[in-house]
Specification:
With 306 residues, the chain is of the alpha+beta class. It has nine helices and twelve strands. The chain has helices at 2-9, 13-22, 28-37, 39-59, 87-92, 94-101, 104-112, 225-232, 257-305, and strands at 64-71, 120-125, 130-132, 139-146, 155-159, 164-169, 179-184, 188-191, 194-200, 217-222, 237-240, 247-254. Strand 11 and strand 12 form a beta hairpin.
């Protein structure tokens, strides 16, 4: 015991010289051995951070942007009868146009005009994330008739053979009960709360040598108008290219650029229809105003000459 104490207390010329030159009284060797003593904590920490990075990488979903350019009405252009029609200022105001583009009302109008393919969400549910199949679904669901109850469930399509597949769902998510239907491709399928047809797409890979295709199982949901409004409302962003122009950049960001582009196309079409309706209203009010002024002038002339 005494020998060990003497060894510990023996000075080290190298470290003593280093301390005297640098004025550092920190014993690096002592702390190195202290850290080395708990090496397993560093190994555990590295393993935890690597596992966390792996999980985050698996969960990561890329975001894409889609953009359109629109030429608005010149804001310096005056109306036919200055001050006669209050909606003229609305049509010329780029700020108001931007507000309208992102409004709930225009979103609602757009959702009502969306094509049928956007009213069904196709996806694969993995352990870490959801992979959307908007443009890659091997089977397309054509809706013939649907009831409100159908929107409450997530359906799974499983490949059976070249001519048939299986549709299954859980009527109660808290229970293990599963209802499944074996259905053919290309024929009307009538169930208690929907009537649909399953049609193969170009992404469908046939059964080769007894092996099922890669996308042999995937999920889909029927999307109600309320769900679609919630999906797209408030996602439009816009800005002028410069302060002197009426060219408006309109865009969306999201994980599914193909679906966003389809939505943006319908949105701009509805936006133009909305502006056209305002212009028609402006023209109607202008004509009404001119008619009233003409009646006043006619009545004045009648009184003067009579």
């Amino acid at each position: 015991m005494d020998v060990n104490n003497k060894r510990t207390a023996e000075p080290d010329p190298y470290f003593d010289d280093t301390k005297s030159k640098t004025n550092i009284n920190f014993d690096f060797v002592l702390w190195f051995y202290r850290i080395l003593k708990y090496w397993y904590l560093f190994v555990i920490s590295v393993a935890i951070f690597l596992a966390y990075a792996y999980i985050q990488n698996k969960k990561w979903v890329p975001t894409f942007g889609v953009q359109a350019v629109m030429l608005l009405e010149d804001k310096n252009r005056s109306s036919v009868v200055a001050g006669a029609v209050p909606t003229a200022s609305l049509l010329r105001s780029t700020e108001n146009q931007q507000i309208i583009l992102n409004s709930y009302g225009l979103t609602e109008r757009t959702v009502k005009q969306l094509p049928d393919k956007m009213r069904i969400d196709y996806f694969i549910q993995t352990s870490f994330k959801i992979i959307n199949l908007y443009t890659d679904t091997p089977v397309r669901v054509e809706v013939i008739d649907i009831k409100d109850e159908a929107y409450s469930y997530t359906y799974k399509i499983s490949f059976v053979d070249q001519d048939n597949c299986e549709i299954s769902y859980k009527p109660n998510p808290e229970k293990e009960e599963i209802i499944s239907l074996k259905v053919p491709f290309g024929q009307e399928i009538e169930y208690k709360f929907f009537k649909i047809k399953l049609v193969k797409t170009d992404a469908f890979v046939p059964n080769i040598n007894g092996f099922k295709p890669e996308l042999s199982t995937f999920n889909f949901n029927f999307l109600s108008e309320g769900q679609l409004i919630g999906m797209f409302n408030g996602r439009i962003h816009s800005n002028l290219q410069n302060g002197n122009a009426t060219i408006l950049n309109i865009g969306m960001n999201g994980p599914n650029p193909a679906r966003d582009l389809d939505y943006l196309t319908v949105l701009l079409d509805e936006f133009q229809k909305y502006n056209l309706s305002l212009k028609n209203e402006q023209a109607t009010l202008t004509i009404k105003f001119l008619d009233e002024q003409l009646k006043i002038i006619t009545e004045s002339y009648r009184l003067i000459f009579n």
